[in-house]
Amino acid sequence: MKFTPSLRAALLATGLTAIGGVANAAGTAPGTVIGNSIDLSYSSGGNTIERQNAASIDFVVDRKVDFILESQVADKVAPVEQGSDSEYLVFYLENEGNDTSGYDIDVATTPSGLTLTLNDDATLEPGEYEVFIGTDPAPGHAGDTAYDPTGMVNIGDLAADAARYVKIQANIPDNAEDGTSDLFTVTATALDPNSTTPTQADTGKGLDEVDTVLADAGADGKEADSSSYVVQAPVLTGQKTARVISENLDGTFNCATGLPQSGELAAVPGACVEYTITVTNATGASVAASDLHVDDVLPSAVSYVDHDEGDFTTVAYDSSTQTVSADLASLASGASASFTIRVEID
Fold it and tell me: CB neighbours (10 Å) of residue 132?
Protein backbone atom coordinates (compact mmCIF):
# COMPACT_ATOMS: atom_id res chain seq x y z
CA MET A 1 0.00 0.00 0.00
CA LYS A 2 1.28 3.44 -0.93
CA PHE A 3 0.62 6.18 1.60
CA THR A 4 -0.66 9.47 0.20
CA PRO A 5 -0.52 12.95 1.69
CA SER A 6 -4.10 12.41 2.82
CA LEU A 7 -3.01 9.55 4.95
CA ARG A 8 -3.36 10.35 8.64
CA ALA A 9 -2.29 8.16 11.50
CA ALA A 10 -3.22 8.73 15.12
CA LEU A 11 -2.60 7.05 18.39
CA LEU A 12 -6.13 6.34 19.58
CA ALA A 13 -5.53 4.48 22.77
CA THR A 14 -2.81 3.13 24.97
CA GLY A 15 -3.69 0.13 27.14
CA LEU A 16 -1.65 -1.00 30.17
CA THR A 17 -2.52 -4.48 31.34
CA ALA A 18 -0.99 -5.98 34.48
CA ILE A 19 -0.90 -9.74 34.40
CA GLY A 20 0.11 -11.90 37.32
CA GLY A 21 0.55 -9.12 39.92
CA VAL A 22 -1.23 -6.36 41.82
CA ALA A 23 0.22 -2.89 42.41
CA ASN A 24 0.70 -1.84 46.04
CA ALA A 25 1.86 1.27 47.85
CA ALA A 26 5.52 0.28 47.42
CA GLY A 27 5.09 -0.23 43.67
CA THR A 28 4.11 -2.94 41.24
CA ALA A 29 5.23 -6.41 42.28
CA PRO A 30 8.24 -7.96 40.55
CA GLY A 31 7.41 -10.44 37.80
CA THR A 32 4.36 -8.45 36.76
CA VAL A 33 4.05 -8.33 32.96
CA ILE A 34 3.12 -4.90 31.65
CA GLY A 35 1.74 -4.90 28.09
CA ASN A 36 1.47 -1.76 25.99
CA SER A 37 -0.33 -1.62 22.62
CA ILE A 38 -1.55 1.03 20.14
CA ASP A 39 -4.51 1.26 17.80
CA LEU A 40 -3.94 2.94 14.39
CA SER A 41 -6.35 4.54 11.93
CA TYR A 42 -5.85 6.25 8.58
CA SER A 43 -7.82 7.34 5.45
CA SER A 44 -7.53 5.49 2.16
CA GLY A 45 -9.82 5.78 -0.90
CA GLY A 46 -12.25 7.87 1.06
CA ASN A 47 -12.50 5.25 3.78
CA THR A 48 -11.19 5.18 7.32
CA ILE A 49 -9.06 2.18 7.90
CA GLU A 50 -8.54 1.02 11.52
CA ARG A 51 -5.94 -1.37 12.77
CA GLN A 52 -6.37 -2.71 16.30
CA ASN A 53 -3.19 -3.62 18.23
CA ALA A 54 -1.08 -2.24 15.43
CA ALA A 55 1.98 -2.44 17.68
CA SER A 56 2.63 -3.77 21.18
CA ILE A 57 5.41 -4.34 23.65
CA ASP A 58 5.61 -6.29 26.92
CA PHE A 59 8.13 -6.09 29.74
CA VAL A 60 8.52 -7.62 33.18
CA VAL A 61 8.71 -5.50 36.34
CA ASP A 62 12.01 -5.97 38.15
CA ARG A 63 12.58 -6.48 41.88
CA LYS A 64 13.42 -3.30 43.77
CA VAL A 65 15.11 -3.86 47.13
CA ASP A 66 14.77 -0.71 49.19
CA PHE A 67 14.43 -0.10 52.91
CA ILE A 68 15.16 2.38 55.68
CA LEU A 69 16.53 2.03 59.20
CA GLU A 70 16.20 5.11 61.40
CA SER A 71 16.77 5.84 65.07
CA GLN A 72 13.66 7.00 66.90
CA VAL A 73 15.62 8.60 69.76
CA ALA A 74 15.49 12.39 69.92
CA ASP A 75 18.84 13.77 68.74
CA LYS A 76 20.03 10.13 68.84
CA VAL A 77 21.00 10.53 72.51
CA ALA A 78 19.18 8.83 75.38
CA PRO A 79 20.07 10.41 78.75
CA VAL A 80 20.13 7.77 81.50
CA GLU A 81 20.70 7.78 85.22
CA GLN A 82 22.97 5.62 87.35
CA GLY A 83 21.28 2.34 88.26
CA SER A 84 18.27 2.88 85.97
CA ASP A 85 16.65 -0.23 84.48
CA SER A 86 14.95 -0.89 81.14
CA GLU A 87 16.41 2.02 79.23
CA TYR A 88 15.52 1.76 75.53
CA LEU A 89 16.96 2.73 72.17
CA VAL A 90 14.40 2.23 69.38
CA PHE A 91 15.05 1.96 65.62
CA TYR A 92 12.48 1.86 62.81
CA LEU A 93 12.90 -0.57 59.90
CA GLU A 94 10.57 -0.39 56.88
CA ASN A 95 10.55 -2.37 53.65
CA GLU A 96 10.17 0.27 50.92
CA GLY A 97 10.82 -2.15 48.10
CA ASN A 98 8.23 -3.84 45.91
CA ASP A 99 8.71 -7.39 47.17
CA THR A 100 9.01 -9.42 50.34
CA SER A 101 12.42 -9.26 51.97
CA GLY A 102 14.09 -10.72 55.03
CA TYR A 103 16.48 -8.79 57.25
CA ASP A 104 19.42 -9.56 59.48
CA ILE A 105 20.09 -7.14 62.34
CA ASP A 106 23.58 -6.51 63.64
CA VAL A 107 24.32 -4.48 66.77
CA ALA A 108 27.75 -3.01 67.39
CA THR A 109 28.79 -0.92 70.39
CA THR A 110 31.42 1.77 70.74
CA PRO A 111 31.91 2.29 74.47
CA SER A 112 33.16 5.48 76.03
CA GLY A 113 33.37 4.50 79.67
CA LEU A 114 30.01 2.78 79.96
CA THR A 115 30.79 -0.57 78.25
CA LEU A 116 27.46 -2.38 78.18
CA THR A 117 27.64 -6.06 77.19
CA LEU A 118 25.17 -8.31 75.38
CA ASN A 119 23.09 -10.41 77.76
CA ASP A 120 23.51 -14.16 77.25
CA ASP A 121 20.98 -15.55 79.73
CA ALA A 122 17.42 -15.01 80.90
CA THR A 123 18.17 -12.29 83.46
CA LEU A 124 19.23 -8.81 82.42
CA GLU A 125 21.84 -7.63 84.92
CA PRO A 126 23.18 -4.10 85.45
CA GLY A 127 25.67 -3.32 82.70
CA GLU A 128 23.95 -5.60 80.15
CA TYR A 129 21.67 -5.09 77.15
CA GLU A 130 19.40 -7.25 75.03
CA VAL A 131 17.69 -6.83 71.65
CA PHE A 132 14.02 -7.18 70.73
CA ILE A 133 12.03 -7.02 67.50
CA GLY A 134 8.46 -5.70 67.60
CA THR A 135 5.64 -4.18 65.61
CA ASP A 136 4.97 -1.36 68.08
CA PRO A 137 7.39 1.40 69.09
CA ALA A 138 6.43 1.27 72.78
CA PRO A 139 9.26 0.04 75.02
CA GLY A 140 8.55 -3.33 76.56
CA HIS A 141 5.54 -4.01 74.32
CA ALA A 142 3.84 -7.37 74.91
CA GLY A 143 4.42 -8.41 71.30
CA ASP A 144 8.20 -7.90 71.35
CA THR A 145 10.36 -10.92 70.56
CA ALA A 146 13.88 -11.44 71.84
CA TYR A 147 16.48 -11.42 69.06
CA ASP A 148 20.07 -12.64 68.98
CA PRO A 149 22.08 -10.18 66.85
CA THR A 150 25.11 -12.47 66.62
CA GLY A 151 25.54 -14.34 63.34
CA MET A 152 23.17 -14.11 60.37
CA VAL A 153 19.59 -14.35 61.66
CA ASN A 154 16.47 -13.41 59.70
CA ILE A 155 14.08 -11.37 61.85
CA GLY A 156 11.23 -12.70 59.67
CA ASP A 157 10.27 -11.76 56.14
CA LEU A 158 8.58 -8.38 55.69
CA ALA A 159 6.12 -7.79 52.88
CA ALA A 160 6.38 -4.59 50.88
CA ASP A 161 5.48 -1.62 53.10
CA ALA A 162 5.71 -3.71 56.29
CA ALA A 163 7.73 -2.37 59.21
CA ARG A 164 9.37 -3.51 62.42
CA TYR A 165 10.99 -1.83 65.42
CA VAL A 166 14.41 -2.86 66.66
CA LYS A 167 14.67 -2.20 70.38
CA ILE A 168 17.71 -2.26 72.62
CA GLN A 169 16.96 -2.58 76.33
CA ALA A 170 19.74 -1.89 78.83
CA ASN A 171 20.21 -1.81 82.59
CA ILE A 172 22.62 0.95 83.60
CA PRO A 173 25.06 0.07 86.40
CA ASP A 174 24.84 2.21 89.53
CA ASN A 175 28.58 2.93 89.37
CA ALA A 176 28.39 4.45 85.89
CA GLU A 177 30.09 7.83 85.93
CA ASP A 178 28.68 11.10 84.68
CA GLY A 179 29.29 11.66 80.97
CA THR A 180 30.17 8.05 80.14
CA SER A 181 28.36 6.66 77.13
CA ASP A 182 27.85 3.73 74.79
CA LEU A 183 27.20 4.28 71.08
CA PHE A 184 25.01 1.59 69.51
CA THR A 185 25.13 1.14 65.74
CA VAL A 186 22.37 -1.01 64.31
CA THR A 187 22.80 -2.38 60.79
CA ALA A 188 20.05 -4.06 58.75
CA THR A 189 21.08 -6.31 55.88
CA ALA A 190 18.50 -7.31 53.25
CA LEU A 191 18.09 -11.09 52.89
CA ASP A 192 16.47 -13.21 50.23
CA PRO A 193 12.98 -14.20 51.41
CA ASN A 194 12.81 -17.11 53.84
CA SER A 195 16.59 -17.37 54.06
CA THR A 196 19.72 -15.98 55.66
CA THR A 197 21.32 -15.21 52.30
CA PRO A 198 22.18 -11.55 51.77
CA THR A 199 20.41 -10.16 48.73
CA GLN A 200 22.70 -9.36 45.81
CA ALA A 201 22.09 -7.13 42.82
CA ASP A 202 21.27 -9.17 39.70
CA THR A 203 20.82 -6.96 36.65
CA GLY A 204 21.19 -7.00 32.87
CA LYS A 205 18.61 -9.71 32.20
CA GLY A 206 16.64 -7.64 29.73
CA LEU A 207 12.96 -6.82 29.66
CA ASP A 208 11.73 -10.40 29.74
CA GLU A 209 13.27 -11.48 33.05
CA VAL A 210 13.25 -10.15 36.61
CA ASP A 211 16.31 -8.15 37.65
CA THR A 212 17.12 -7.43 41.28
CA VAL A 213 18.05 -3.80 41.88
CA LEU A 214 19.46 -2.57 45.20
CA ALA A 215 17.84 0.83 45.68
CA ASP A 216 18.70 1.53 49.33
CA ALA A 217 20.70 4.65 50.10
CA GLY A 218 24.06 2.95 49.71
CA ALA A 219 22.93 0.60 46.94
CA ASP A 220 24.54 -2.21 48.91
CA GLY A 221 21.62 -3.88 50.68
CA LYS A 222 22.67 -2.46 54.05
CA GLU A 223 21.31 0.40 56.12
CA ALA A 224 22.61 1.59 59.50
CA ASP A 225 21.89 4.20 62.14
CA SER A 226 23.20 4.93 65.62
CA SER A 227 22.09 6.16 69.02
CA SER A 228 23.82 6.52 72.37
CA TYR A 229 23.13 6.01 76.01
CA VAL A 230 24.74 8.90 77.89
CA VAL A 231 24.92 8.84 81.67
CA GLN A 232 23.79 11.99 83.43
CA ALA A 233 24.72 11.84 87.08
CA PRO A 234 25.89 14.07 89.90
CA VAL A 235 29.61 13.98 90.69
CA LEU A 236 29.72 13.96 94.48
CA THR A 237 32.65 14.21 96.84
CA GLY A 238 32.58 14.28 100.61
CA GLN A 239 34.94 15.89 103.08
CA LYS A 240 35.11 15.71 106.87
CA THR A 241 37.31 18.02 108.91
CA ALA A 242 37.82 18.38 112.67
CA ARG A 243 39.03 21.20 114.90
CA VAL A 244 39.32 21.61 118.65
CA ILE A 245 36.93 24.35 119.81
CA SER A 246 38.06 24.32 123.43
CA GLU A 247 40.42 22.25 125.54
CA ASN A 248 37.84 22.66 128.34
CA LEU A 249 40.46 22.00 130.97
CA ASP A 250 38.30 23.29 133.82
CA GLY A 251 35.09 21.61 132.54
CA THR A 252 33.14 24.87 132.30
CA PHE A 253 33.04 25.28 128.49
CA ASN A 254 29.60 24.75 126.93
CA CYS A 255 30.46 22.47 123.98
CA ALA A 256 26.99 22.82 122.45
CA THR A 257 26.91 26.62 122.17
CA GLY A 258 30.33 27.98 123.05
CA LEU A 259 32.30 30.07 120.56
CA PRO A 260 35.52 28.62 119.24
CA GLN A 261 38.52 29.63 121.31
CA SER A 262 41.70 30.93 119.69
CA GLY A 263 45.17 29.51 119.66
CA GLU A 264 46.65 26.08 119.13
CA LEU A 265 44.34 23.83 121.13
CA ALA A 266 45.14 20.26 122.14
CA ALA A 267 42.79 17.34 121.66
CA VAL A 268 42.85 16.28 125.30
CA PRO A 269 40.15 14.27 127.10
CA GLY A 270 37.21 16.56 127.83
CA ALA A 271 38.03 18.84 124.88
CA CYS A 272 35.24 19.99 122.58
CA VAL A 273 35.74 19.03 118.94
CA GLU A 274 33.72 20.27 115.96
CA TYR A 275 33.38 18.11 112.88
CA THR A 276 32.39 19.75 109.60
CA ILE A 277 30.94 17.48 106.91
CA THR A 278 30.83 18.96 103.40
CA VAL A 279 29.38 17.40 100.26
CA THR A 280 30.14 18.93 96.85
CA ASN A 281 28.55 18.31 93.45
CA ALA A 282 31.34 19.08 90.99
CA THR A 283 31.13 22.01 88.62
CA GLY A 284 30.16 20.58 85.23
CA ALA A 285 28.17 17.66 86.64
CA SER A 286 25.29 16.91 84.27
CA VAL A 287 22.55 16.96 86.90
CA ALA A 288 21.83 17.95 90.47
CA ALA A 289 22.06 15.35 93.22
CA SER A 290 18.62 14.48 94.55
CA ASP A 291 17.58 13.06 97.91
CA LEU A 292 21.08 13.40 99.33
CA HIS A 293 21.66 11.41 102.54
CA VAL A 294 24.75 11.32 104.77
CA ASP A 295 25.44 8.95 107.67
CA ASP A 296 28.31 9.69 110.08
CA VAL A 297 29.06 7.01 112.68
CA LEU A 298 30.91 8.74 115.49
CA PRO A 299 34.06 7.18 116.94
CA SER A 300 33.66 5.26 120.17
CA ALA A 301 36.11 7.55 121.98
CA VAL A 302 33.86 10.61 121.71
CA SER A 303 30.44 11.55 123.03
CA TYR A 304 27.88 13.38 120.92
CA VAL A 305 26.93 16.82 122.19
CA ASP A 306 25.01 18.70 119.49
CA HIS A 307 24.85 19.51 115.80
CA ASP A 308 24.03 22.39 113.46
CA GLU A 309 22.05 21.67 110.29
CA GLY A 310 23.89 24.26 108.25
CA ASP A 311 22.90 23.84 104.58
CA PHE A 312 21.09 20.54 105.13
CA THR A 313 17.34 20.23 105.55
CA THR A 314 17.41 17.86 108.52
CA VAL A 315 20.12 16.45 110.78
CA ALA A 316 19.40 13.89 113.48
CA TYR A 317 21.37 11.80 116.00
CA ASP A 318 20.63 8.14 116.84
CA SER A 319 22.19 7.36 120.22
CA SER A 320 21.67 3.61 119.80
CA THR A 321 24.08 3.50 116.86
CA GLN A 322 26.01 6.71 117.57
CA THR A 323 25.11 7.83 114.05
CA VAL A 324 24.41 11.36 112.86
CA SER A 325 22.23 11.38 109.70
CA ALA A 326 21.65 14.35 107.41
CA ASP A 327 19.31 14.87 104.44
CA LEU A 328 19.16 17.39 101.62
CA ALA A 329 16.55 17.45 98.84
CA SER A 330 18.84 18.67 96.06
CA LEU A 331 22.40 19.80 95.44
CA ALA A 332 23.02 21.64 92.19
CA SER A 333 26.03 21.22 89.94
CA GLY A 334 28.89 23.28 91.33
CA ALA A 335 27.28 23.64 94.77
CA SER A 336 28.41 22.51 98.23
CA ALA A 337 26.47 21.87 101.43
CA SER A 338 27.78 21.46 104.98
CA PHE A 339 26.65 20.67 108.52
CA THR A 340 28.56 20.45 111.81
CA ILE A 341 28.68 18.09 114.78
CA ARG A 342 30.14 18.81 118.19
CA VAL A 343 31.53 16.06 120.41
CA GLU A 344 33.58 15.77 123.58
CA ILE A 345 36.60 13.55 123.80
CA ASP A 346 36.03 10.85 126.43
Answer: 19
